[in-house]
Design brief:
CATH superfamily: dinb family like domain
Number of strands: 2
CATH architecture: Up-down Bundle
Strand order of the largest sheet: 1-2
Strand content: under 5%
Largest sheet: 2 strands, antiparallel
Helix content: 55-70%
Radius of gyration: 17 Å
Structural class: mainly alpha
Distance between the termini: 17 Å
Order of helices and strands: HHHHHHHHEEH
Number of helices: 9
Length: 182
């Protein structure tokens, strides 16, 4: 078994870097990543048993089950932020404590396929909106009080496209290290 360093375990596809600008091609790639994520998560957890789902993807990290539920929680928030930014003028969003959400009872007791199904539904609705957006819509913003700045929607879409692949890579990397296959 390979023993990658902590940085590779934390960021198997690399750390997120905010793009300074975007092209139509970038937007299309990000939307494609968001479209594909639910199917990617399906593949990542396919045939995993309870022991595997309760395995930490790295020491000090979350279990596979927590990761899957976190992605659903996070992307539900992204969907709401998208709709708020498209219907209000630079709304202030409500941050949430993801580390506390990951410890809640639903994360421990609800089967992961429920969150993957939720990802299918949320992403279907999100992609319907994203595909219908005009150039001016991509410039609309929401204000994030934790970071004390406004985020344009194109930047949010870039982040969430990365976020899904980031966490799917945690699960794939664990499966490869443990020899669990697919």
């Amino acid at each position: 078994m390979d023993n990658p360093g902590l940085e590779e375990l934390k960021y198997p596809i690399g750390r997120y870097t905010t793009p300074q600008q975007y092209t139509d091609s970038d937007i299309r790639q990000w939307i494609n990543s968001i479209t594909a994520l639910p199917m990617l998560m399906d593949a990542c957890i396919e045939n995993m048993d309870v022991y595997q789902l309760e395995t930490l993807y790295r020491e000090g990290g979350w279990t596979v089950q927590q990761v899957v539920h976190h992605v659903a929680d996070s992307h539900m928030n992204a969907y709401i932020r998208l709709k708020l930014a498209l219907t209000e003028d630079n709304p202030t969003i409500t941050p949430y404590k993801e580390e506390l959400w990951a410890e809640m009872s639903d994360t421990r007791t609800v089967p992961v396929n429920i969150s993957v199904t939720l990802l299918h539904a949320v992403h279907r609705r999100m992609v319907a909106i994203l595909n219908d957006m005009k150039e001016t819509d991509w410039q609309r913003t929401y204000f994030h009080p934790q970071y004390k700045r406004s985020f344009p929607l194109w930047e949010m879409v870039a982040l969430y496209a990365w976020h899904g692949k980031h966490h799917a890579a945690h699960i794939r990397q664990l499966r490869e290290r443990m020899g669990w296959g697919y």
